[in-house]
Amino acid sequence: MNIETIDHIGIRVADLDRAMTFYELFGFKVIHKADNDPVAVVKNDEGVELNLVFNANDDNGGDNILMDIPTKYAGFTHVAFRVNSVLETVNILNANGIAITQGPVKFGREGHVSVFVRDPDRNTLEFRGREEDLSSIGGVETYENEN
To answer: Which of 35, 46, 89, 124 keeps 20 to 30 A from 81, CA to CA?
Structure first.
């Protein structure tokens, strides 16, 4: 088998309208809602596809069970999106009141910088771009190895 690329990413959310208010900031639009499942297919202009599965049970006190609690469970911890400018991304996040939970940060791979945020359901998103002058937003932390 030869895997060529990622086709789409499924992200479980509790409230589709709330999730779309967030994901629309990054250019995603609903292109299809399934008739038989709680799934909305969303895409941006670059063709990146997410499936927002809107049936999350939110009985965990607002925590993401994969990231926020001491016991670690197996599962996908985050999605990393490639962006053309980390500076532009940070400015958009700040302008829309979206808290950066980590970053800008460099994880040892030369020339790549990331910022991390949480969506309204506490799913972790990474926005990763090429290194650029980030002095206007406070610079970059550096770590030896990517986690």
So the answer is: 35
69-88 tens-digit pLDDT: 788 778 888 999 999 999 99
User: pLDDT tens digits, residue range 104-140?
Assistant: 998 766 778 999 999 999 999 999 998 888 888 887 7
Cβ–Cβ under 8 Å, residues 16 and 10: no
Close Cβ partners of 39 (under 8 Å, ≥ 6 residues apart):
10, 33, 51, 52, 53, 54
Phi, psi of 20 (to 5 degrees): -65, -35
C-alpha 105/C-alpha 99 separation (Å) is 15
CB 104 within 8 A of CB 142: no
